[in-house]
């Protein structure tokens, strides 16, 4: 009895502590008019969602911008409600007392244009699934191609609207690193620190081809119909296949195999009938289908294109672009990354070093491959805190 | 004039030498009746093509079997005619005076069941594109699932028909290594030497999932029609996408990027219109489409399944299977292989070593990744010759 009371006591304390620690966040909406894309088209209006953690100080000089990865959203930390099963993707390092300390910093993160997760109720974005005011129907493929530079420009307008003229830091993983780097190149006097995680400085032939593999299944799905599916069946099968590709490319075989401990090669039903998938593929397909239900296929195609066209500075002169950087730079590739391989980031480090930039590199070794930038970022807590304290 | 005569003289000599060196090969046909697959279905007849180089000696103890890779054929060496642009895929190491010396050995290689290249006039195979005698139409997906074990059994019958009871060696790359290893496990007293190149001993979860990525585009192509397309349009778009996937997975980014020297990230037409692919993707798609024209989509699906189900010995006891091996083993993984990673082969080496088998390992370092097993095999000429001389 005494023991049970003791247990209840601790449960109450623990649950109180947990509640106190939950960072509750609210999704907000930002609209800007007459946005001209890098590809030269003026959209009458652009809307994106954003969220923030911590408080903007009076001088407005404590803002840290977080830019999201390919299949991500602005939800970098905290929960929308206590009952959310999981917090934002970088919650390990963003929050009170964490490396990106919300007791000190005003952390802000926005959904990109053409965000993949159009049917996630917490996502606000503008893209091919949005209504084209000229026709009253979804844009589909008439939406202009957008670039990483465009993502940055929308973020710039959002920050301007809040009176934030300078960023204490900008940090992003994967496609988020592209945006973060582009910020430092495009607005060198506005970015004091750059945290570039599992990223790249430019796309090479191999990565452009790899990204296209993600687009192929969508285009093959008959429901895709050249992007005109908003009034009919959606290309869920194609999009599911795309999600299968993305998940696998983001992982390392070692952790992949470790996470399927009960895997058996000799799958009897799959040996008896070609129409039956091996069990592991069935499980993976179900998971991918669940993700695909929140996403829009055209948006994914536009994200692929935005990534394929990325090179820091968005011109042919990469060295010239990198030379513009004034921010202190922290590069964090994952040693086992098979998608955006660490070699590219090591070479970026060498280039910046040669240019006498303030740059350091710290590789993540978590065993997840590319996903170490999300799942193993906690191992860099102290390093990141120190970098931000400098 | 004198000089010109001299030139003509040399041209004659050179062309004579070249002709003398060209190993001319002839495709042959092997048929066997009542073949029962590992999945338990009896096919009334099975036909495969084969070719051989060198001469079978009287004792019939100088035969070396070459087993082909996933998208390969029996064409391992030589040319079908002088005008062929390229010789067989392992011509570097098979021929008179080469590591697999056709002056000494009788080298034989056959097309597998469900060979991908059904519409290559030099390929003879049995699979879903073959006529089902019961219906008079192509089998389609009613063809039984076949395994690496089945491929071996067909080869066994072919060798039996030639009176070859023992193999001096069996050698194969990639999916060919699966067959070669299966030979050594299944017929330990008939295989004296095993050369296992860019291979594996069993499939892990990651590889099974990776292989499924190749199948996805075919199934999404509306022309695929659950495998019933033999009387209509073929699923060429899906198959082309599959070929794009396979080619990329078989290469290493370093060589990939080196082979696209004029690659430019900022692809203007691709930035202006989402419907226009980046130039590099257009080039790759054209190449893949050319390969797809010779292939059958269902056959590729069956090859994927055969590979997904592979584990040496084809039972749950891999160690028990490996323990059966009596052959001397030479393992040749590629250090940069991203598809069948060298870690697996290193671990196979450790296992065989622990079992006191005669095993050696020699990694290929050619920069091509998986394709080093084909393109850089020449670097192992001396080692291979020494192994075969023992």
Automatic annotation (TrEMBL), chains A, B:
GO biological process: homoserine metabolic process; methionine biosynthetic process
EC number: 2.3.1.-
Signal peptide start-end: 1-20
Any GO CC annotation of this UniProt entry: cytoplasm
Record: active site: 174 (nucleophile), 337, 370
UniProt subcellular location: Cytoplasm
Annotated SUPFAM superfamilies: alpha/beta-Hydrolases (SSF53474)
Residues of the AB hydrolase-1 domain: 147-238
UniProt keyword list: Acyltransferase, Amino-acid biosynthesis, Cytoplasm, Signal, Transferase
Broad class of where this protein is predominantly found: cytoplasm
GO MF assignments: homoserine O-acetyltransferase activity
Pfam families: Abhydrolase_1
InterPro entries in UniProt: AB_hydrolase_1, AB_hydrolase_fold, HAT_MetX-like
Quaternary structure and partners: Homodimer.
Similarity comment: family membership: Belongs to the AB hydrolase superfamily. MetX family.
Entry protein name: Probable acyltransferase
Organism in which the protein naturally occurs: Pseudoalteromonas xiamenensis
């Amino acid at each position: 009895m005494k023991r049970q009371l003791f247990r209840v006591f601790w449960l109450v304390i623990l649950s109180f502590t947990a509640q106190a620690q939950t960072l509750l966040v609210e999704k907000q909406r930002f609209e800007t008019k007459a946005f001209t894309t890098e590809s030269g088209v003026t959209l009458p209006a652009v809307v994106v969602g954003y969220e923030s953690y911590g408080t903007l100080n009076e001088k407005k000089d404590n803002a840290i911008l977080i830019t999201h990865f390919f299949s991500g959203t602005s939800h970098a930390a905290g929960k929308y409600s206590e009952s959310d099963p999981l917090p934002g993707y970088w919650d390990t390092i963003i929050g009170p007392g964490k490396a990106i300390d919300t007791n000190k910093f005003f952390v802000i993160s926005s959904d990109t244009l053409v965000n993949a997760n159009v049917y996630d109720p917490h996502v606000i974005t503008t893209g091919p699934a949005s209504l084209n005011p000229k026709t009253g129907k979804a844009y589909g493929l008439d939406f202009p191609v957008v670039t990483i530079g465009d993502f940055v420009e929308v973020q710039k307008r959002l920050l301007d609207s809040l009176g934030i003229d300078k960023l204490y830091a900008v940090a992003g993983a994967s496609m988020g690193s592209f945006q973060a780097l582009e910020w430092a190149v495009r607005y060198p006097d506005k970015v004091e620190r750059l945290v570039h995680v599992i990223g790249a400085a430019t796309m090479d032939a191999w990565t452009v081809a790899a990204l296209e593999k993600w687009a192929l299944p969508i285009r093959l799905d008959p429901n895709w119909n050249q992007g005109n599916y908003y009034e009919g069946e959606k290309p869920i099968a194609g999009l599911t296949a795309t999600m299968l590709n993305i998940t696998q490319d983001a992982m390392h075989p070692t952790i992949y195999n470790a996470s399927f401990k009960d895997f058996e090669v000799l799958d009897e039903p799959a040996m008896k009938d070609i129409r039956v998938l091996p069990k592991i593929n069935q499980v993976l397909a179900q998971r991918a289908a669940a993700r695909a239900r929140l996403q829009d296929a055209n948006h994914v195609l536009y994200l692929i294109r935005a990534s394929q066209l990325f090179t820091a500075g968005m011109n042919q002169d990469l060295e010239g672009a990198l030379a513009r950087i004034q921010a202190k730079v922290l590069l964090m590739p994952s040693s086992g990354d098979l998608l955006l391989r660490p070699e590219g980031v090591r070479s970026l480090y060498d280039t910046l070093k040669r240019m006498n930039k303030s740059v350091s590199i710290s590789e993540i070794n978590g065993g997840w491959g590319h996903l170490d930038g999300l799942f193993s970022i906690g191992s860099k807590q102290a390093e990141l805190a120190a970098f931000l304290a400098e």
